[in-house]
């Protein structure tokens, strides 16, 4: 069975300069909801493993049939308590409890509201959780265990609380909440409509405050059908996943989890993370799982890859059955792409790397690179049923002469082309925020995304789109030249050859681009307590900037100064989005004092300068 179905793309140029793209393949029939797919799978293969989570040195496992039985009992418990019409607020990481509760709620039509673990366990005042609870007014609060007790106390009020073992004060244990399912559970499930809300996912994206994105049953089901049509192997090869991506975000909670639920797969919950001391758990888990599809953010690959390059056994476990390596949510530096391809070749693996593009508002995939791609910045083409509009941005700063009439992209690099999306997988709007909903769509019903793209080949739309960054993250130098943060950042990380894990670009209204950077953990000991690099690290950082400059381009495509950050980006402070990538604007705002260090006169020793310091 082929991995990909070759794309067939139709394009049309409108008189106003917009370019419309869509797949020539229509979206096929599909169930009303992912819940219907899950229930059908539980009847077809009840003894197959559905979900497993770490329990000490072993795995706690649940089959499709076991999860179905538990979900139906919980669904009846919701009905008995009159909670089937109210949202269910979930305070938990990825777990068997979380999955069972979500399926139970969606079965009877109660929207699920998963929340970021950081908002429960890393917040002193739980202000964000309280704001979410006030907005959605949940009928039930679910907490994994006693570690969430303070968060529960902050948001539950008089609402009933469910926990796994009943160790959260005032909670009912899982075993005591459910009841023998009646015919009403089946009736409620059969009555689900595509337009009914399945989830409310809170997201801040890379700009703005968290907002509740409505995810309907139809959106989630349509998106999985779209993926099945471009990944035909899913119909015959149930996917096996090892996955850590949080279910409070659309990548892990919709894309990955629903991939398993719709295609009869097995999900092993990875207790590892892309961080020192935690990525080693992922390496350990790979020895048990041997995934067939591996999905991660670029930071995850950056943390895992050095272990796979050093440990041949771990690499073999990773590649043994791997058909697809998938990344999304942020740009993958080309050097990581090249190293992953080299690793696969060294072990005789036929693994193919691929990606897609989308948002919480698109359930999430809107495009897919369902064809061989030679570079990491290609986002793919529209999925079946999706329409894209490539629109020259109108921000009052773009000279019409900079737009290429043939592609809609910038001739000089100063202009941007926004990608907008319309289709059955697109949200109807934001929970109780009609103002945000109205502003999110243009006059033709396309969702405004704020992401910039270009055609990989102006003469062939089927070659896919290339990511050009978040428009809101771009800035101007004092010369008037635009800096594309979304393009320059991965180029800088590639030039670093594994030395850096991430970077925040600075220099607005200045005479050059500068950056604040985080070192790979293996190099953390090369800066002193004051953040001053040792001589060897300073030379390596200068070499990184020199390699970037050697790629060509003007001042907007070079970085002239670097400042090493020792405090990691903080999710609870908004410095990391729920997608897992660094929020450029939030870091610059929160660390404005350090941004100022990059332009101090004289420059302090912790600033690394490309070229002699006296010239800067």
Fold and architecture overview:
It is a single chain. A hairpin with a 7-residue loop joins β10 and β11. The chain is globular, with a radius of gyration of 24 Å. With 616 residues, the protein is an alpha/beta fold. The chain contains 19 helices and 28 strands. The strands form six sheets. An eleven-stranded mixed sheet has the order 1-2-19-20-21-22-18-17-16-15-14. The chain has a five-stranded parallel sheet with strand order 6-5-7-8-9, with helices on both faces. Strands 4-3-13-12 form a four-stranded mixed sheet, sandwiched between helices. α1 packs across α2.
Overall geometry: globular
The beta-strand count equals 28
Distance from first to last alpha carbon:
58 Å
Structural class: alpha/beta
Quaternary structure state of the chains depicted: single chain
How many helices? The count is 19
């Amino acid at each position: 069975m082929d991995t990909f179905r070759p794309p067939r793309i139709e394009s049309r140029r409108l008189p106003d300069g917009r370019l419309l793209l869509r797949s020539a393949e229509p979206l096929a029939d599909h169930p009303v909801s992912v819940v219907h797919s899950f229930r059908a799978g539980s009847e077809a293969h009840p003894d197959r493993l559905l979900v497993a989570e770490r329990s000490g040195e072993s795995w706690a496992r649940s089959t499709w049939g076991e999860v179905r039985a538990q979900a139906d009992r919980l669904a009846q418990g919701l009905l008995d308590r009159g909670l089937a019409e109210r949202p269910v607020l979930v305070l938990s990481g990825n777990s068997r409890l979380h999955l069972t509760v979500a399926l139970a709620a969606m079965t009877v039509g109660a929207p699920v509201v998963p929340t970021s673990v950081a908002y429960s366990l890393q917040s002193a005042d739980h202000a964000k959780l309280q704001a979410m609870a006030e907005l959605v007014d949940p009928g039930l609060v679910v907490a994994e265990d006693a570690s969430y007790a303070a968060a529960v106390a902050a948001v539950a009020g008089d609402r009933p609380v469910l926990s796994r073992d009943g160790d959260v004060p005032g909670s009912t244990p899982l075993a005591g909440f459910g009841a023998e399912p009646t015919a009403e559970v089946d009736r409620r499930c059969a009555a689900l409509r595509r337009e009914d809300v399945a989830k409310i996912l809170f997201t801040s994206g890379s700009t703005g405050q968290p907002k509740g994105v409505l995810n309907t049953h139809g959106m989630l089901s349509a998106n999985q059908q779209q993926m099945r049509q471009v990944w035909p192997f899913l119909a015959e090869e149930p996917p096996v996943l090892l996955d850590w991506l949080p279910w409070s975000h659309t990548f892990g909670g919709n894309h990955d989890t629903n991939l398993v639920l719709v295609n009869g797969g097995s999900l092993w919950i990875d207790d590892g993370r892309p961080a020192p001391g935690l990525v080693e758990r992922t390496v350990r888990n790979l020895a048990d799982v041997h995934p067939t599809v591996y999905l991660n953010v670029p930071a995850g690959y950056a943390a895992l890859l050095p272990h796979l390059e050093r440990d041949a056994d771990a690499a073999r476990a990773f590649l043994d059955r791997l058909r697809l390596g998938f990344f999304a949510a942020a740009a993958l530096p080309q050097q990581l792409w090249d190293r992953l391809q080299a690793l696969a070749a060294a072990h005789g693996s036929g693994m193919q790397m691929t990606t897609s593009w989308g948002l919480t508002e698109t359930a999430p995939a809107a495009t897919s690179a369902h064809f061989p791609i030679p570079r990491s910045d290609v986002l793919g083409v529209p999925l079946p049923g999706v329409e894209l509009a490539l629109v020259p941005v109108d921000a009052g700063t773009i000279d019409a002469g900079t737009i290429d009439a043939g592609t809609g992209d910038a001739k000089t690099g100063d202009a941007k082309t926004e990608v907008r999306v319309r289709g059955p997988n697109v949200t109807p709007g934001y929970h109780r925020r009609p103002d945000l909903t109205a502003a999110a769509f243009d006059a033709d019903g396309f969702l405004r995304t704020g992401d910039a793209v270009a055609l990989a080949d102006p003469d062939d739309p089927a070659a896919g789109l290339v990511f050009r960054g978040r428009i809101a993250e771009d800035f101007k130098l004092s010369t008037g030249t635009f800096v594309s943060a979304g393009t320059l950042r991965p180029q800088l990380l590639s030039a670093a050859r594994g030395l850096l894990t991430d970077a925040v670009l600075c220099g607005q209204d200045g005479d050059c681009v500068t950056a604040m950077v985080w070192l790979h953990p293996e190099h953390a000991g090369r800066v002193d307590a004051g953040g001053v690099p040792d001589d060897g690290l300073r030379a390596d950082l200068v070499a990184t900037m020199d390699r970037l400059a050697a790629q060509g381009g003007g001042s907007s495509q070079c970085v002239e100064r670097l400042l090493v950050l020792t405090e990691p980006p903080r999710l609870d402070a908004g410095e990391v989005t729920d997608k897992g990538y660094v929020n450029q604007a939030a870091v610059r705002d929160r660390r404005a004092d350090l941004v100022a260090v990059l332009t101090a006169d004289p420059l302090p020793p912790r600033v690394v300068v490309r070229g002699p310091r006296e010239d800067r």
